């Protein structure tokens, strides 16, 4: 069973990986797009710039993951989960657009690889965020239960004290 600190550490590692994947994907997409625009052989196609967009989704997902690991608030966990889902969608669309391209190059293979790794990272990050939310919910419940138990004991002591002085 993983502890909360292990989950947070894993989220930080995955978030840094997502940031790296995002930057790499944006760079590969930009190089591909520039090559297509300056090339004289084939006209630009729809999927030529898709690695840039999926890279931006992975980059945002990584940044939100770091905030999520630092803050651990419910709203940031929801935001991070939403960003992971956007990263999943962006990566899947990137793969679909790249599959539709008629010309293939090593840059397209690199884009496909980055998208697959990014999709995997987003999936694992979403799962870890759900686990972290479960731990935080359980922790808050135990704190509240302990607080209620403590206040109940204090009420009993006060009642005993008042009863003792009234006798």
From TrEMBL:
Q: Where in the cell is it found?
A: Cytoplasm; Membrane
Signal peptide start-end: 1-22
Q: Which spans are transmembrane here? A: 53-69, 76-97, 109-130
Coiled-coil stretches are: none
Q: Print the keywords alphabetically.
A: Cytoplasm, Membrane, Signal, Transmembrane, Transmembrane helix
- Assign the protein's first listed, main location to one coarse class: cytoplasm
By its UniProt entry, which InterPro entries does this protein fall under? Answer: TMEM196
UniProt topology in membrane = Multi-pass membrane protein
The protein here is known as Transmembrane protein 196
Look up and give the organism this protein is from: Engystomops pustulosus (Tungara frog)
